[in-house]
Amino acid sequence: MKSDVEELMPRLLPLETGGGSGNLDLSGTPRNPQEYLRQVQLEASLCPEVVVAQIDPTKLKKQTVNVSVAGCHAAPQGFSPSLRWQQQQVSNFSDVRQSITKNRQHWRSQILDDNVQMPRLTDEEGWKRFCLGENVYQGTSSGPTDAHQEPALDYGKVIQLFTPYCLYVLISWFEEREFVPQLGCWLYALLACLEKPLLPEAHSSIRQLAR
What we know:
The protein has helices spanning 4-8, 33-46, 83-108, 124-132, 134-138, 156-176, 181-193, 200-210. By secondary structure, the protein is mostly helical. This is Gem-associated protein 2. It holds the Pfam family SIP1.
């Protein structure tokens, strides 16, 4: 009949129990594999089955870290969007996400055109050039009218495969460079394509963008 310990942690190596265990020196170096296994077995037997942490309740009342709980400063009068406008944007964004969800299976079954050269997954600079276009990447043009100069592609398949990484790359770009219309379009599209439950990387990217 096996013990409860053997039921949870079955014995994998044959090891004789009993004789000689009392003479083992736990601080010494084992002379052979059999002696090493006996040392491990003896150390395990000396450990209590239940360990209770000794906590001094008086220390729990002492504040050791000062954390500011003040919220964000409100925008000056006339500079913040109205509540109605915010609700409308949330509604529009929700409609886009629902549309993407309905068409997700269709996009996944599509094959990219042969002329679409995908960057490697870890190629940050390649993804910046791919998403924003050569002109924006090189910094030669960033005007509002330049967003429609380069030919558009259906990036549905691309977004589904690389959404979290693209989001991270473009947010990093936003921290270093000025905002351009192409960047706004991509950030909106990538956020709309995020699937729930969100990965920790996606949570981190959204917090980074919000800051």
